[in-house]
């Protein structure tokens, strides 16, 4: 297969892993990436394992998705676009608002401008969205049945009432797997930008009958993930803190949970979306379908690293964070035949084995927390 694919953000965590998978299938790949310092460090040519894993294997274009000329250069002769490039992370989005909107929304607008107004051979677009578009997601209330709680109230959080409540009767609710038809209540700027991306695709490409697929990734982790980025990837952050013998601040009561999906499963789902026409005009959750508490993740990592560091359940919380997350995978399993191969127990073991082989990373985690505190976003 010699299909010409452009992957924006292709030197990033998911992107570089997708590149190496597609190369095995003989795709012709171009990458557009600005080698962000937060992801790749100050000297990517020497220190970025992600960039080095794809360097010289593809047509690499150093550029930015907010630059129209860079898009035009990268899109020449391309047949499939996989759009990963974005500013990611809930916390940072709440104070770098303009940057998130410019990259995630304007960057996507430039792609859609090109598709709409230029002659080109592009046949399909895959866009990386996020479970952040759901906000709190889907829950069950004994009184009112299936409900979709709004953003948690800051006053309740300050009192230690972390669990979402029914929007109708205010009773506590229990988590359900969140499916693609769930109501959308993004609680962060990041989530809002991702939902805007989705709406732009449906409003621009659907009327043109131009194929696209939206993938709502859950918390992707695995070998290759940055161990020095203090803003995204809590398993990487915890791993670096444990290896550094530093105290871990566990937010809320530690019982908040996430759906952690192993990197190769996320890549498999993306390849299925690229190659299967049944994915056209569809939205899919990409996850593991299980909910793991943050406290359990900390304890499991310490066990795997055979290190016991001090951790404390602080009651801190970030504005924009959700309480729980568990993806309903019924749709992607039925339509694309996707099935995650890694449970959290298996995936975290492989991840920790990789971490053990890495040099100890420097992480400015306390700086990131202090920055959020100074902006009154961490309570």
Radius of gyration (Å): 20 Å
Kindly state the percentage of residues in helix: 25-40%
The global form is globular
| CATH uppermost class | Alpha Beta
Total helical elements: 15
Number of spatially distinct domains: 1
Helix/strand/pairing class, anyone?
alpha/beta
Q: Give me the CATH architecture, please.
A: 3-Layer(aba) Sandwich
What key attributes describe this structure?
379 residues, alpha/beta, Rossmann fold, seven-stranded parallel sheet, 15 helices, 38% helix
Provide structural commentary:
There is one protein chain. This protein has 379 residues and is α/β, with parallel strands linked by helices. It contains 15 helices and 16 strands. The chain has helices at 13-24, 37-40, 44-47, 49-54, 68-74, 90-93, 97-117, 154-158, 189-204, 234-243, 263-275, 294-305, 330-336, 344-356, 365-374; strands at 4-8, 28-33, 59-62, 80-83, 124-130, 139-141, 145-147, 174-175, 212-217, 219-221, 248-250, 257-258, 260-262, 282-286, 292-293, 311-313. Strand 6 (139-141) and strand 7 (145-147) form a beta hairpin. It is globular, with a radius of gyration of 20 Å. The relative contact order is 0.14.
